[in-house]
Amino acid sequence: MTFRVLIGSRTLATRCPNREAKIGTLLNRQNRDSSWILWAIDIADKERGSSARFTADWLNTVAGHLLYISDGGWTPANPYETPDGEIDLSPPDAERLQRLIKLVVDEEARLRCLSDIKLEDLHERLLDESGFFSQESARPDYAHWSRRPMWSAEETVALALDKDPRRVKALSLKELRKSPFAKKFRRLLSIVNRAIELGEIPKGIERDNLKGLCSRMDIDFPTTFENELLLSEGSDSLRAKAASRDKPTLDRMILIMAVEHYGYDPYAEENGQALKAIVAALEGAGLKTSMSSVSNNLTDAWKVIKLQPGLKGPLKNPGSPAA
Question: Does 322 map to a domain?
Answer without folding.
Answer: no
